[in-house]
Specification:
Blueprint (H helix, E strand, L loop, with lengths): L10 E2 L8 H14 L7 H14 L3 E5 L2 H11 L7 E5 L5 H8 L3 E5 L1 E2 L4 E2 L1 H6 L5 E7 L8 H11 L3 E4 L7 E2 L2 E2 L6 E5 L12 E5 L2 H10 L21 H12 L1 H19 L5 E3 L13 E5 L1 H4 L3 H10 L2 E2 L18 H4 L5 H7 L2 E4 L7 H16 L1
Parallel strand pairs: 1-15, 3-4, 3-7, 7-8, 8-11
Antiparallel strand pairs: 2-12, 5-6, 9-10, 11-12, 13-14, 14-16
Helix pairs in contact: 1-8, 2-8, 3-4, 3-7, 9-14, 11-14
Bound molecules: ligand T4K.
Ligand T4K binds next to helix 3 and helix 4.
């Protein structure tokens, strides 16, 4: 193993993909000329229109971020303070924190290891008199088992929401995500496939949910400026919308880049025992925004954390998305009877194996070959 880091410049997971700068600056200049910078401006309206076209859903409400979107969605669907929401433990902490911060009680279900998304049977086991809803998460952009979750939700008369933070551009049964359940919430954070610096969008086919969220993101004001509900500030700025639109212009190119990177990783790691690159759903379109390895310590002879530490020493800043499981994180870890009443073996197993590696437009063949070499050398001991 060389003593000096293999990379002099850090390689990050989640490097933003920046579209056409000239186009971005033109759009920003347009906003500056119009002196209309926020509060449902024309760029936000254009972004919403673009998202409804891309997803085929009836409504899109652009938002300041996905975390706020989850809170607005839960409220618009009538989930009341103090009610429980079943959510997978294998997700970014934003999913349960959004609920907790809104006065709801996250109750963690397990995931199935193939999709890394909510196991419908585990969801059903957790439904009881205090349950107010279900929040599935399309982890790494791979869709949940939507049909089965919808059946569980219908059986119990519960709203089904999807945290689609990772999943813009992905499909389920060849239909774009966005129109499933009562609402789906995308993230356009800087690290996401489509980025608007900070941002998100709630997408729904439900007219009432859309109208409620549209008002609630602007302190409960209706389009006629009547105060129709409580609300918060969940607005997207025009600058963010400009970035989001420019980012959407290169959607297909980005998928190509991500898929090409994935191929290079697969070639570079081929034949390594206990090391697999996680796959997207067969026959579906996916954004391939996350490149995630699974390292099985027993089969590879090396723990995921050793690989992670070695990569760090060489300026490759891999991420353990998602470790630890949310049930093992603050504040939920202190109240397992409330938040984690059933065993979560698949979450716990996955969270010790996964490692996200750099992909997107910031890395190319040479960097990926270097990262794969580092992993091979680490496994060779
Ligand atoms: N639900 C799920 C399932 C989510 O994964 C997320 C967010 C949400 C909900 C909530 O969505 P938002 O409310 O954010 O819209 C990062 C992202 O900040 C976060 O958005 C994302 N999930 C999560 C999985 O990853 P951190 O704490 O790891 O971020 P940070 O700042 O350490 O950056 C991650 C990597 O990206 C680093 O390697 C540095 C690099 N980076 C980051 C930024 C911001 C850059 O190179 N440039 C940048 O501008 O959470």
């Amino acid at each position: 193993m060389p003593r000096t880091p293999m990379f002099s410049e850090p390689l990050h997971v989640g490097r933003p993909n920046v579209g056409d700068r000239q186009r971005l600056l033109e759009r920003i200049n347009g906003a500056l000329d119009r002196l209309w910078l926020s509060n449902n401006g024309p760029l936000v309206a254009e972004l919403e229109e673009r998202v409804t076209t891309l997803t085929g859903a009836r409504h899109c409400v652009a938002l300041s971020n996905a975390t706020t979107g989850i809170q607005l969605a839960a409220r618009a669907c009538g989930i009341r303070q103090g009610q429980e929401v079943v959510v997978p433990a294998f997700t970014w902490i934003a999913s349960p924190h959004a609920l907790e911060w809104a006065g709801l009680v996250p109750v963690f279900c397990d995931v199935d290891e193939e999709t890394a998304t909510a196991d419908p049977q585990s969801v059903e086991e957790l439904i009881g008199p205090r349950t107010g809803g279900i929040l599935g998460v399309h982890v790494y952009g791979r869709p949940c088992r939507v049909t089965e979750l919808a059946k569980v939700a219908d059986r119990h008369g519960l709203p089904l929401l999807f945290d689609a933070a990772h999943a813009f551009g992905s499909t389920y049964q060849q239909q774009p995500l966005g129109g499933f359940g009562s609402a789906e919430i995308f993230s356009f954070h800087a690290t996401k496939y489509i980025n608007s610096f900070e941002g998100g969008a709630l997408v729904t086919n439900d007219d009432e949910v859309a109208a409620k969220v549209r008002a609630m993101r602007n302190l409960g004001l209706s389009p006629d400026r009547d105060i129709v509900s409580a609300g918060t500030n969940g607005r997207m700025s025009e600058i963010s919308a400009a970035m989001g639109l420019v980012s959407m212009d290169i959607m297909d190119d980005l998928i190509e880049v991500n898929m090409r990177n994935e191929l290079w990783y697969r070639e570079g790691l081929a034949g390594l025992p206990g090391v697999t690159v996680r796959s997207q759903a067969p026959k579906e379109r996916a954004n391939h925004q996350y490149l995630v390895l699974e390292i099985d310590a027993a089969a590879s002879g090396v723990h995921r954390d050793t690989v992670h530490e070695t990569l760090y020493a060489h300026n490759v800043f891999s991420r353990r998305y998602f470790y630890p499981g949310c049930h093992q994180s603050e504040p939920y870890v202190h109240a397992p009877a409330v938040h984690a009443p059933v065993p979560l073996p698949h979450t716990e197993a996955l969270s010790t194996r996964v490692l996200a590696l750099p992909t997107g437009s910031a890395v190319g063949e040479a960097e990926i070959a270097g990262v794969c070499d580092l992993i091979r050398t680490t496994l060779a001991g």
